[in-house]
Amino acid sequence: VQLVESGGGLVQAGGSLRLSCAPSGLKFDDYVIGWFRQAPGKEREGISCIDIRHGSTYYAHSVKGRFTISSDNAKNTVYLQMNSLTPDDTAVYYCAAGSGCRKELAEYWGQGTQVTVSS
Question: Quick check: helix, strand or coil at residue 6?
């Protein structure tokens, strides 16, 4: 099983980025795909997830209204559209596949992609 993230980079405050997560080696619609992030010196936190089969989504309070998670089941890809970025969003972003939205339920992790927001 492999999860490959892409789309990170450097952006100015107020800007946008779209992250992609492409799992392979698993049955896509059997999983909940989550996005997590970890800033230096902080714990990894869950920010959004999507139940592929049912389409239900979850957002952490810190990103609600700014980030949107979606899936393209034909491409086995999950996206995280991030708008109105602030320096507090700077972190390594990871996607994970598991049975729920909590990191304890994640079974497979991607390698992470760096997002840096400059002020």
Answer: strand
Name the token pair of 63: 């990103």
CA distance 44 to 7: 19
Q: Which tens digit of pLDDT belongs to each residue from 87-119?
A: 999 999 999 999 999 999 999 999 999 999 999
* pLDDT per residue as tens digits for the range 26-62: 999 999 999 999 999 999 999 999 999 999 999 999 9
DSSP secondary structure string, 69-84?
EEEETTTTEEEEEE-S
Q: Is the dihedral of CA 50, 56, 61, 62 positive or negative?
A: positive
CA nearest neighbour of 49 among 91, 10, 116, 104:
104
> What's the full length of the chain, in residues?
119
* Residue 60: strand, helix, or coil: coil
